[in-house]
What does this fold into?
Amino acid sequence: MERSAAGTRLLDCMRRAADAGLSRGSAGNASMRCAAGMWITPSGIEPQVMQATDTVTLDLQGRVLEGTLRPSSEWPMHAAIYREHPDALAIVHCHSRHATALACCGRAIPAFHYMVAVAGGESIRCAPYALFGSTELATHALRALEGRRACLLANHGQLALGATPEAALALAIEVEELAAQYVAALAAGEPRLLDAAQMAAVVARFADYGPGRGDQPVQSGSRSSCDGRIV
Ligand SMILES: [Zn+2]
It folds into this structure.
């Protein structure tokens, strides 16, 4: 795949994220792993005016290999994830409303609903706050992503990993929906949490899902060639 083709997919992802209400203005970014490192959306450009050719190719140390624009300021977080998560082939980061609201309270999403396991475990963690674009934020995100494919970022937003940009976006949409449901449940009363054994059973059931074996929504756009933990 070439940069322009990757850029078309990343741009489509960013526009779909905006249409789904996941991000506003130039907030949020998306990337795909490539042989040289990664393709990532540019800094400070709204998806409506972004061009596929604005995509920047970086190596995983942040050196610009292709492109004339500045890469997203969150490139250190994307690069750190690609270095540490071999199965992560795409990342979507956004400031979706409910996920960000919980993150601003420093709250993880606990096992209030079985679909929380879609992120890989019994909770969706919230990484501690650090300055956007900093290596400290990347370190915090990596810790929150241990055994997971999505996390919240305190006082900031959320991020989701996938085998494709489409799968990462689908997971980000799911995280936002879960966050909205959790906020509603908190408003309604005290959510009953599933226990560790119940969530382990869900995680195991999800691991058995795949093409032709179920309709788990976040599998959309995933590739069977990436048969690991990241879907
Ligand atoms: Zn951000």
The radius of gyration is 17 Å. Confidence is low (pLDDT under 50) at residues 212-231. The chain has one domain: 3-219. Residues 27, 74, 93, 95, 132, 156-157 surround zinc ion (CB under 6 Å).
